[in-house]
TrEMBL record:
One of its GO terms (molecular function) is lyase activity. Its EC number is 4.-.-.-. The keyword Lyase applies. It is an enzyme of class 4 (lyase). GO terms for biological process: protein-tetrapyrrole linkage. InterPro entries: Calycin (IPR012674), CpcS/CpeS (IPR018536). The lineage of its organism: Bacteria, Bacillati, Cyanobacteriota, Cyanophyceae, Leptolyngbyales. This is Chromophore lyase CpcS/CpeS. Keywords: Lyase. It comes from Phormidesmis priestleyi. The keyword Transcription does not apply.
Amino acid sequence: MSALDIFHGFFDSCVGNWDSERTYHYLSKSAIERSHTHFGVSPLTDEQKNKVFADNQYTVAASSLGTCPGFHLVFHTVSEKGEVVDQSVNLAFVPNGQPAEHEYLLEGDYLRDRAYEEDRPTISHFSFNSRTCELLMTTRYTQIVSVDSITLVNPKMRIRRIFNYMKAPDGQPLTELALVGFGVEQKLAD
């Protein structure tokens, strides 16, 4: 199987309803918070993909839409303090071509019609490791850089990691963590 085939299989496995238990470590204020999230994932239609591309002023050939997987994600989160967040977002992934047969990494652009940290359309970077089924998404916001990882352990379980770094000066490494999150996500029976 090619890296691109495994990438598309990853997205197919993610469609459905999921429950997530997460723990967030807010390092700047020495606080820990737990939350429970229920979310639904459905594939993006071509119309939704085109809207995400238009919102981000991003051009993709109509003939390439089939190679750009994406999700419509709806989630309901309740923190242990009782705070509730309901949100929906459309996400599209545009691979930078097909990797060579022996290569297992796929990279490209990751577009959303609204970002999590800043409520606006955004273009980010993704990489996908077809050997470990890990999708790594890096988003540069105004003040932070968010590195979000989803690893598909099997079709019914995913592991999440979220690292939010304080933005470093251009060319400098990311060294100051503001938030670290970990989660276990389990797919619900249909």
